[in-house]
Amino acid sequence: MFEYPACMADRATILHADLDAFYASVEQLLDPGLRNTPMAVGSGVVLAASYEAKAFGVSGGMSTRRAKELCPHLKMVGGHFSEYQRLGDAAIDIMKDFTPLVERISIDEAFLDVAGSIHLLGSPTDIAITIRRRVKDELGLPVSVGIARTKHLAKIASQVAKPDGLLLVPADRELEFLHPLPAELMWGVGPVTKARLAEMGIRTIGELAEAPGRSLERLLGAAIGTKLGALAWNSDPRAIEQHHSVSSVSAQSALGRSPVSDELIERTIRHLADRVASRLRAKSKAGHTVTARVRFADLRSVTRSVTLPAAVSVTPIIAEVAESLVRSALHDHPDVHEVSLLAVGVSGLAMESALQLELPLHLEGERIRPGTEAGSSRWVLDKAVDEVREKFGKRSIGYASVVLDESRAVPDEFRELAEH
DNA sequence: TCTGGGGTCCTAGGACCC
DNA sequence: TCTGGGGTCCTAGGACCC
User: Which pTM does this prediction carry?
Assistant: First the structure.
């Protein structure tokens, strides 16, 4: 554990807590036979690797075949996804004992602002030590914590602290800590941006900080260039956000290499639309824009979207619209005969309760019984179909049966949780 | 190395309106 | 009326995150 002297902490009150190799750690917790051995969660793809496996170079996102090449004794296990949710929730609950200002950013990760807790619970370092001990004692899981004055820096600190570590960056030593680190540790720098920065001779955050803002913006775009410049000087003080609402809901299904057929498209899209629609309704939301994505066998992908005059949240409507969008996309690529993935999304979300007040006004002129569920759905469906026909041609969409296929090749819970 | 699923944000061009 | 400028919305694609 590496830590700067606590007396210099000053105003570093943001914690970033991140459970280590979360899925893999849970599996090792559930099955003692997996402890201290290189193992990973996943089937065709590594979703999460234990630290013993990471030592061999195995990492998330890697194909199982590649992982076995690197680590011949690697044990692959399927996931216990409901356990991940339960233990992730439990870890967050422990953090909430220390401050109400908890911003959860994924199943296994959260920011905390403990500024208001110091006089009762001790310094941010004391709080972080206690959180780490409680998560270990009560749940049996390792969690790393970074402490700094800003969220971005706290997150970098937790990455540097891993595995099973704690790192405080004092407010008066931020740039001293930040600038020697590689640029790709920054939030928002992935493989493409890393390569572009390397072209400019930029490899560390310090080199990025010294680069002229204008050349960064030219190279990376105005928004990203400006943002990275601010992050490199640690001058991006975002506050903890306890409630952020989702702005889109989507579902996708990988299909290997599947020959295009009406049957495949209908069955897959209806299943995806059902998943999206049910999640929308669970949140009491509906959305104006329906998007469909088709990935071809060669991994190129195209998207088609349409914005409707009314927000939708009903399975058959989303299915009909998405299906027509898929057909439109395939129509534009007549050379394509195999697809490897289909996706359906709904965005432009609004609360459903607010929307239903508006609907009857439109329904009056449509000779549909206002206010009834069936009438509203039918009206929106007709409008949606009209909209799509206008944009993509009359033959692009028809009223197919809306019987849903409930068969599900992959357990849904497998789809909803993911970690890298 | 091309293999999973669910998200966010940004960009650029075009349509449309005033 | 073809001559200016600005704002907003929509669509498609891309990078990135966990």
Answer: 0.84
